[in-house]
């Protein structure tokens, strides 16, 4: 009960503050909405326009580096698309508790807007507040182990403190990030069963937890750092940002959103919404967003995702350190609504100092009973490693309406063959923003993921079957899934995303029939 109460209290604070989904990604990544007191971007000169396009919600300034390679503190769907090179005027300053007009209500960035201009005033003085409700629902009318339907939700509250504005100092002092969230509900993955959950919002302990508590510093055009309670998913093998939103998370399947899932299965990679003690440094050798060299260090602690450890902020129970690096190349205009089309390439790798069982000691992931490992060569391994390659590109932008366009992504992730549950993992997808001329912010997305089981496990189970000891055992091979969905945005603060998923070989074995899922995501930004 206290967990539900805590989640409700956090949500209440967000409502009282009139919060909307600015979140830390709006203060550290990609949004480009402009606040002109009702005026259009087209009313200013081209030079002024480019400066204004770097401004986010309520005066938070963005940089080209943050847009291309910046952290994305909430790597899940529901965020509004940036206004960008907008002919759509941002609402005029709100004069009271309620929006000035129905037009302003529909076009404001959050359900509660900016009562009496309080949000704008807080942002001008260094405090940015965000809040959101988000839910996943899914059911399988056929396939899998059994028929079922599940619902899970999340409520979140974020606070960002611009220390220069807040303290009045004459120099850049960085930004303090705080994020807390509460999750409830149940997932469909265990009932199917599948290796990657088809509901990305479910997991990491259904409880209230700390999602981020850190100090981020943009020292100059060449160096950026962050230190504190953070998670690797924000910064390494992360999605690129298109139209101000997370590209991977235009999908509900957790194998795609918000990162290629196998890296978390194969290593100590810290995934959202958990927060781990850690730090990273990003180097921009050319002083712009074209090239990136990045290093990080994060505590590996398998217990942080537990229900009782939502606010754990120490190294007790840590098994080692996750040490990733990443190289990035980017080209593109100042936003996705004008200039050259965006392209990104990321290549990275990691070393994990933890000592873990080799893959024979982890066969339970494939629902293989422990008895199958009795004679297997189980041993301990220290120093897992792996790597990844990511590519994404904006394929086209409509000439008649720059708000409409198409983006593509693909990734390949590889894990240590000694320990990796899924040493080979592939994702790909395409999103069309602007399904009709009258719906420039709606999307239609099609994506896929595929994982291949570690052949050591496959060969071991086949060996048991050939020797007559494998009765009832199924050798794992691969698990694939595709997803097709439609993202309907009747307002800037509301998302409804119905979709279909089809899963081949649930659990990576040929035990159950392929499954079809009907799902729905919805989000309200406050």
TrEMBL record:
Biological process, per Gene Ontology: carbohydrate transport
Keyword entries, A-Z: Signal
InterPro entries: Carb-sel_porin_OprB (IPR007049), OprB_Porin (IPR052932), OprB_sf (IPR038673)
One Pfam assignment: OprB
An annotated Gene Ontology molecular function: porin activity
Signal sequence, renumbered to the chain: 1-24
Record has Signal as a keyword: yes
Keyword Secreted carried by entry: no
Top-level division of the source organism's lineage: Bacteria
GO cellular component, one term: membrane
Family of this protein: Belongs to the OprB family.
Protein's recorded name: Porin
Record organism: Bombella intestini
């Amino acid at each position: 009960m206290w967990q539900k109460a805590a989640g409700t209290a956090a949500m209440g604070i967000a409502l009282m503050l009139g919060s909307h989904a600015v979140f830390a990604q709006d203060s550290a990544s990609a949004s480009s909405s402009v606040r002109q007191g009702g005026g259009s971007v087209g009313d200013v000169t081209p030079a002024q326009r480019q400066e204004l396009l770097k401004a986010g919600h309520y005066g938070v300034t963005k940089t080209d580096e943050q847009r291309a390679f910046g952290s994305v503190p909430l790597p899940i769907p529901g965020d509004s698309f940036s206004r960008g090179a907008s002919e759509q005027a941002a609402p005029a300053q709100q004069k009271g508790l309620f929006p000035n007009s129905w037009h302003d209500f529909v076009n404001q960035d959050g359900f509660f807007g900016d009562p009496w201009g309080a949000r704008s005033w807080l942002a001008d003085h260094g405090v940015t507040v965000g809040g959101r409700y988000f839910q996943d629902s899914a059911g399988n009318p056929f396939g899998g182990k059994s028929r079922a339907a599940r619902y899970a939700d999340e409520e979140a509250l974020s606070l960002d403190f611009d220390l220069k504005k807040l303290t009045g100092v004459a120099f850049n002092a960085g930004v303090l990030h705080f994020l807390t969230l509460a999750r409830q509900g149940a997932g469909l993955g265990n009932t199917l069963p599948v290796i990657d959950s088809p509901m990305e919002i479910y997991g990491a302990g259904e409880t209230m937890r700390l999602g981020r508590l850190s100090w981020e510093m943009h020292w100059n055009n060449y160096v950026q750092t962050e230190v504190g309670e953070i998670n690797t998913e924000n910064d390494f093998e992360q999605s690129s940002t298109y139209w101000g939103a997370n590209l991977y998370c235009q999908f509900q399947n957790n194998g795609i959103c918000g990162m290629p899932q196998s890296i978390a299965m194969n290593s100590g990679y810290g995934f959202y919404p958990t927060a781990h003690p850690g730090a990273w440094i990003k180097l921009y050798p050319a002083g712009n967003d074209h090239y990136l060299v990045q290093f990080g260090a994060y505590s590996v602690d398998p217990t942080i995702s537990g229900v009782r450890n939502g606010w754990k902020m120490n190294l007790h129970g840590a098994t080692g350190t996750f040490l990733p690096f990443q190289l990035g190349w980017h080209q593109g205009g100042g936003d996705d609504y004008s200039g050259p089309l965006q392209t990104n390439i990321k290549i990275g790798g990691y070393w994990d100092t933890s000592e873990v069982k080799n893959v024979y000691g982890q066969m339970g992931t494939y629902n293989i009973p422990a008895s199958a490992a009795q004679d297997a060569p189980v041993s301990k391994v220290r120093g897992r490693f792996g790597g990844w390659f990511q590519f994404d590109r904006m394929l086209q932008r409509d000439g008649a309406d720059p708000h409409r366009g198409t983006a593509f992504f693909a990734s390949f992730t590889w894990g240590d063959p000694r320990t990796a549950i899924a040493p080979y993992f592939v994702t790909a997808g395409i999103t069309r923003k602007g399904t009709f001329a009258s719906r420039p912010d709606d999307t239609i997305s099609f994506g896929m993921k595929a994982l291949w089981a570690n052949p050591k496990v496959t060969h071991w189970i086949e060996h048991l079957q050939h020797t007559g000891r494998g009765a009832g055992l199924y050798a794992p091979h691969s698990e694939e899934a595709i997803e097709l969905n439609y993202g309907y945005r009747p307002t800037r603060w509301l998302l409804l995303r119905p979709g279909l998923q089809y899963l081949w070989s649930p659990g990576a074995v040929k035990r159950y029939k392929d499954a079809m899922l009907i799902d729905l995501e919805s989000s309200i930004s406050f």
